Amino acid sequence: MPGISLANTIAELNLEDEWGPEVTTATTLDGVPYAPFSKGDKLGRMADWTQEGKEGRDRGGRYGRGYRDQQAFGAGTSSLFAVQVAEDESSFSVVDNTRNTAKTRGFGRGGGTVFRGRGQRGGAQRGGRGGFQRAGPNQPQGRQNQYYDQRGGRGGRGGRRFGWRDYDKPQRNRDSSVAIRPGWVMKEEIDFLRLTKLNLGTSEGEDLDDYGFLYYYDRSYDKPPVKNAERKLQSLDRAAYNVTTSQDPVIGQLAKDDEATIFATSDILSMLMCSTRSVYSWDIVITKQGNKIFLDKRLDNTIDLATVNENATDAPLEADAPNTQGNQQTGVKPDSINTPGNLAIEATMINHNFALQVVQESQTAKVEMSHSNPFYVASEETEPLASKAYKYRRFDLSLETDEEPLHLIVRTEVDAVVKNNISGDDQYLIVKALNEFDNKAQGSGGALDWRTKLASQRGAVVATEMKNNSCKLARWATQAILAKADQMKVGFVSRTNPKNAQNHVVLGVMGYKPREFASQMNLSLSNGWGIVRTIVDLIRGMAGDEEDGDKKYVLVKDPNKSVIRLYEVPIGTFEDDDDGAGTVTTDARGEGEEE
Known about the structure:
It contains eleven helices and 21 strands. It is of the alpha+beta class and 595 residues long. Keywords: Cytoplasm, Initiation factor, Protein biosynthesis, RNA-binding.
């Protein structure tokens, strides 16, 4: 009967004894759904923790996307409507038909061992980052029992990278270049990551004045030495000066004439510009008098020293310290000639003597600058002057937002002059020297034997030195660019005997253009200028309203971390110690005599 419901019909006929479910209008049974409305409806992605068996949790220890998307409403409860699986999937197994399956982990004799860090992706051939692999018997001949650092591939972030006898390497705890005193107040701490992001474009600079004289370079050193006729490095007595900024009378006069705001020397400025490549500790004394800022060095400083293999993975080790609890011994004898300090002194003397030896001393054939050497006093000196020219150059560090221009004057140095083969003009040279102490000793950084490889594999030798001495070579290139030198001459000097640090021979000389050399090392001058401007802004910001107040700061590189710290120190710091703090005296401002 159309239009009449079944319930109304049963009520009218009063058929109470008929079979069937109780007639009710309620849609729930005690608040719980009686049955799923539709098995196609889903609640979304949910974790069903009541599911039993291996259909859920036991699939790889987690819920897969394909499985969770197939869960229907009510499928996780015990229901009369649940369909029982006809086959038991738990009894299913995969048969491996791969032939000659190699063991991935074995500790028996001849078995290869593979460890990977957490998050390893890819097979052993990819070699995830942080992996460690030892070659087994199936490796090519001559490569058994070797260790390889696996850096390719992705993953392995949580793994530890092992190297040769990595477990037995002594802990390197270097000392600071200057003792931090209790009265010093730390004003700023900057890590190298922040410094590498700085950038400031500047011009090539302008020449203000020049002093000294230069001898001509001896071109015979560019030719490879004759076999069994190596040139010995000579020790010459010549007067050479490397006066700090505040004690330079020329800079004092320029400061009096208000030619610039910031004053420095090329060795100090290059250390600051290349600070992100440094490993050893160093310090710079910064003095602010009035509106002038002077970057100085202490007399007993490490900036003047030429380090050896500072950036090598396995750098030279310090000598053993006295046995104290918790200190790990390095195994280096105290009288060893291959400690970082002894190697730096040796390299510094080699650079000094090499620059004097490769020039042709002649009183008739030399280039005189506009003024004589400002540090030489003929009545007091007994040694003749060395070939050296000082060029005072000015750079503009101003920004568009600056109300007043900000200029920096730097004293640069050049070592020799050479005639151009085409134009015949004089070209300025920077002369430096790399030294080899022992390519088989600890700390050599995997360097090749220069006596056998320098002539045939020059590129490999130079590449290794760029890796092991990145900071030193970057400083040399920066000094050459600051001086606007036309060429760099880099000599290769080796010990006559690896156990003798006194006698050396010159194995060869290479010439480079400074900017091309800097490009090969991925050296950014704009980043260096950005670091200088940042430090200067910090100093100027800390001065506040005290324009005429004298303040002193010390910028220190942490000996064991990639961090530099700026300390404010009393104005009389270092003066009582008689260690040449480089304080800006009244003479540096052009108003009196040196202290």
